[in-house]
């Protein structure tokens, strides 16, 4: 067995050595071996990251990490889990495992016997994964710095390279031999794959002979990486899961550790001319599109065979993933102790950009902390979508406000609601049955992403059919925290947890949980000066940005409680408020007030409600409603556009 220092660089050798031990529990032993090595999170971090390391510098068949969102799930695929290898000189045979591999390998003096009755077919699940959408630059930079500090340099690939025969392990389900005895028939000679004398290692893809030029992404190939947000960059990956096939879901954040596979023979690109004469032209084109979508060049979309994984509750590299760990509890304790000071600093920052409007800053803090913590039937509990009205007709204001939000939260996206965007963008995912994949939409986002909708950009005009559907999709995610994925013949609801902030001049055309009218305390506004003052405060250390980021990331994860005494007091207060006029405190108003008090408690570092906080929340709500009543709102240009 390879040495302990080789488990990152030579994982397949370790897998094969455990398989050679002929223990029926060898697969569990493999899991145990790597689980033991990765139990120390420092060891986990020392594995090179596919997110921040150029693909060409990573050693093939070594362990890598990939932090991603599950964008799609392909059909299970079958592969040779066990196959027989014959020695040419001695005619002796032995078995090898194909687990965690795409290509079966043997040395020059060996043959792979694809017709052996000892070959065994297994299955695995393939996930199409993309970098986490809307991840802000400071998060990427933090991960990149951590990765550079922790990662050990990989072994020189040439130090362990040998000439080997390679054969794709995937089984074509339509092949008669695949269904009968788990063997593969194409390109075989007497049931064995042979090596040309004096030639290089033989490489073949699933369906055709491998073409390195094509696999490298030649000029005649186009790959749609299917990112939810147009224009985002990063590496997509085909992630192959073995032992936890049913535990992952679409739009989930996961970090995988697995064996990197980038053999050029895995790519399949074809066109109608190459496939002519193989049958009906339409069926041929459908087959080509599916093959191209499922077998892109590994130089652009590498394969990752999962050995370990961990679901992510957040994506901040400076915060422990498990807040119940020793480090996590210490961080939470310190954050709660300093919550008052941190909140004051955050309030000052936001009020500067909001033209010294402290009340609007208070509500924006509550919005940034809001998160769905439970569901009751169709209702998502904990959300607080926010509509800020009275926004100045100045693009610099929106840009400055979003730039600050971008520095505070880990994931955010600004969507100007222009007529062009509403009519042309694809917001909801849709199944493409020709390519047999899920085409992503902009609302396919991971939990606790902050979506900022700029309604001031919407001018009078006509929404087309797609624009109306997009408007309905935005309404669904705001009201019910769900996205309807379009499967042509039916739609399927996927729950989400996305904070939505709507900026508008008048009341938004979209439904929101809370509306606050901006009331500037400055007569003349110079946004350049505002940005300068904010940046100066951040650079001077007057404002601790790291603590604010931790504050916004950690507090929504805490458990919130309400004692029996406080519950009784709140209920009595509700009954008392309705005695004179039931319309002064409707059940909906009461539920909204409970959300406000919960978020206000958390923002003050108190995970349980007190009478003082309840009264403070009531005063905030009274001031907000008075401001709305006194504000003279102009006719919304957005409402005109929607008519």
Automatic annotation (TrEMBL):
One Gene Ontology CC term in the entry: nucleus
UniProt GO BP: DNA-templated DNA replication
Biased composition (Basic and acidic residues): 200-209
Protein family membership: Belongs to the MCMBP family.
Biased composition (Low complexity): 174-183
Keywords per UniProt: Nucleus
Keyword set includes Nucleus: yes
InterPro entries: MCM_complex-bd (IPR019140)
A Pfam short name: MCM_bind
Chief location bin: nucleus
Phylogenetic lineage: Eukaryota, Metazoa, Echinodermata, Eleutherozoa, Echinozoa
Domain of life: Eukaryota
MF terms (GO), sorted A to Z: chromatin binding
Keyword Nucleus attached: yes
Biased amino acid composition, Polar residues: 148-163
Region of interest called Disordered, as start-end residue ranges on this chain: 148-221
Compartment(s) where it occurs, according to its Swiss-Prot or TrEMBL record: Nucleus
Protein name, UniProt field: Mini-chromosome maintenance complex-binding protein
């Amino acid at each position: 067995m390879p040495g302990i220092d080789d488990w990152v660089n030579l994982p397949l050798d370790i897998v094969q050595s455990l398989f050679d031990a002929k223990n029926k529990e060898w697969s569990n032993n493999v899991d145990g071996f790597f689980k033991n090595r990765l139990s120390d999170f420092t060891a986990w971090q020392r594995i090179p990251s596919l997110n921040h390391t150029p693909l060409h510098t990573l050693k093939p068949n070594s362990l890598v990490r990939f932090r991603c969102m599950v964008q799609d799930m392909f059909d299970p695929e079958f592969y040779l889990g066990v196959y027989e290898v014959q020695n040419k000189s001695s005619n002796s045979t032995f078995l090898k495992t194909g687990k965690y591999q795409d290509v079966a390998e043997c040395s020059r003096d060996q043959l792979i016997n694809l017709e052996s009755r000892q070959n065994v077919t297994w299955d695995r699940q393939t996930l199409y994964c993309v970098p986490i959408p809307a991840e802000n630059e400071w998060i990427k930079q933090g991960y990149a710095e951590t990765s550079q500090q922790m990662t050990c340099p990989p072994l020189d690939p040439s130090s362990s390279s040998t000439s080997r025969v390679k054969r794709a392990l995937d089984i074509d389900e339509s092949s008669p031999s695949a269904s009968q005895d788990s063997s593969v028939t194409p390109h075989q000679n007497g049931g064995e794959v042979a090596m040309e004398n004096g030639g290089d290692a033989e490489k073949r893809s699933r369906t055709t002979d491998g073409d390195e030029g094509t696999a490298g992404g030649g000029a005649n190939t186009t790959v749609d990486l299917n990112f939810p947000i147009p224009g985002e960059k990063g590496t997509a990956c085909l992630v192959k899961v073995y032992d936890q096939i049913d535990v992952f879901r679409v739009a989930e954040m996961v970090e995988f550790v697995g064996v990197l596979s980038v053999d050029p023979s895995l790519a399949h690109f074809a066109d109608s001319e190459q496939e002519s004469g193989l049958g009906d032209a339409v069926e041929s084109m459908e087959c080509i599109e599916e093959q191209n979508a499922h077998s892109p060049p590994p130089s652009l979309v590498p394969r990752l065979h999962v050995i370990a994984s961990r679901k992510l509750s957040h994506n901040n590299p400076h915060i422990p993933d498990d807040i119940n760990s020793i480090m996590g509890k210490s961080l939470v304790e310190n954050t709660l102790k300093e919550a008052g000071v941190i909140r004051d600093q955050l309030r000052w920052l936001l009020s500067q950009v909001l033209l010294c409007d402290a009340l609007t800053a208070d509500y924006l803090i509550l919005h940034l902390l809001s998160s769905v913590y439970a569901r009751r039937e169709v209702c998502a509990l904990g959300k607080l979508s926010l509509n800020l009205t009275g926004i100045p007709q100045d693009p610099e204001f929106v840009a400055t406000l979003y730039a600050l939000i971008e520095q505070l939260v880990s994931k955010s996206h600004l969507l100007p609601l222009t007529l062009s965007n509403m009519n042309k963008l694809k917001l909801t995912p849709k199944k493409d049955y020709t390519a047999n994949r899920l085409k992503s939409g902009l609302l396919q986002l991971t939990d606790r992403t902050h979506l900022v909708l700029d309604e001031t950009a919407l001018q009078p005009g006509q929404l087309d059919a797609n624009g109306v559907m997009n408007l309905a999709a935005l309404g669904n995610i705001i009201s019910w925290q769900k996205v309807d994925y379009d499967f042509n013949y039916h739609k399927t609801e996927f729950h989400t947890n996305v904070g939505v902030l709507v900026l508008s001049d008048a009341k938004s055309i979209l439904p929101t949980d809370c509306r606050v009218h901006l009331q500037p305390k400055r007569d003349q506004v110079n946004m350049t000066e505002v940005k300068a003052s904010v940046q100066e405060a951040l650079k001077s250390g007057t404002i601790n940005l790291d603590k604010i980021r931790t504050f916004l990331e950690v507090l929504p994860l805490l458990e919130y409680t309400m004692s029996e005494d406080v519950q009784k007091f709140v209920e009595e207060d509700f009954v008392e408020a309705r005695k004179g006029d039931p319309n002064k405190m409707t059940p909906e108003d009461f539920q909204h007030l409970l959300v406000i008090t919960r978020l206000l408690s958390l923002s003050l570092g108190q995970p349980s409600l007190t009478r003082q906080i309840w009264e403070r929340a009531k005063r905030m709500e009274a001031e907000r409603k008075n401001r709305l009543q006194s504000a003279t709102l102009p006719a919304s240009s957005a409402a005109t556009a929607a008519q």
